[in-house]
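Q: Can someone sanity-check these two? First one:
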Amino acid sequence: MKPESLVFAAAGALFGLIAGWILGAEQASVRPQSVAAPAAESQPAGQTAQAAPQLDQAEVDRLLKVAAADPTNASPRAALGNLYFDAERYKDATQWYEAALKLDPNNPDVSTDLGVGYYYLNQPDRALAQFDRSLQIDSKHTKTLLNVGIVRAFGKQDLAGAAQAWEQVLALAPASPEGQAAKRALDAMKGAHPNLPAGSTPATPAPGTN
């Protein structure tokens, strides 16, 4: 999986939690019992949590060779980040995303993947700061804006800021998968919190140039 968008990892669980969430009544996290894995679905009571996916070690070894052969190539480093992310080894994933971003600092996809990794490590402020960097690269990067909404809602208890970010996605690309996900999130949020003033809290600083 390429973690450009947290919504796509567990959309059903995410929107269900939005609909049932009372602001301030519980600690904000997509997975109430584990902030460190925020977009994973909760296990039903009495069931054992699923084991983490297996790391594709053969592919890791291949990419390590490619990366070693070309120290200036960001692509194998980003691919290693994806492999470790898929295996739920988020610390390793963020290290590889950081390495890729050093070589390709203006890649908004890798920047956003890095922010997602930080969120999975229970570092929402660092995630939001990284998303700000993504939006400085591309102010209309809808996957970034989608994730800003998730981190604001579940990492910062900022539903107004989350709504503003999702409204931006919907305005930019209403027919896209990101736009449809943002619409579902907004509908669920408004159903649970009809008096929430959308847009009263900034979702991100003013974006920079593309």
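And here is the second, same format, sequence then tokens:
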Amino acid sequence: MIEFSSIYKIDDSKNLTDEEIKTCVNILLTDYYWLKYEDFAMFLKNARMGKYGKIYGSFDTPTFFQMLGQYCDERVEVSKEINRVAMEKESRSPISPETQALIDDFKKQLQEKKVKRMNFSDEIPEMREQQKQMNKYIAEFKKKVGHCSGFLEINGKMLGINEYLEFRYNEEKEL
């Protein structure tokens, strides 16, 4: 800040005082915390080249922040342009033949799975019926077990829920 102030040294009575410099630094730390050291270096370089105009009369805090505002506006525009160019470049990036072949193969696999799913949908009513039957067996098991150990004794064997479902399913198949 002191270095910047010295660029526009008119005379001691018309330049930033030590107190004004401290105020500027505090504002920079609180309101412009997102600027990096490189930003200030670039801002100082541009100011030295007279990019923000000549100072007539005196150099004060509002003049400094007006100049910094010009730098920040310019920085935003440059960033937008860099992002725009990067996005265009990314969207135009050519796909290698190998990558295109992988994409095409993947699309083909997806199409085959869709066809299989369509054929599978014919079996859904039968699966729904099986699920209803399983739900019936689960309810039956829970009713018989109640708040006990979670096992049922059938034909001298202790069966958990999975074994019971398998037992009932096989029992029904035999009928």
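A (reply): Looked at the second one. The longest strand covers residues 152-154. The longest helix spans residues 61-91.
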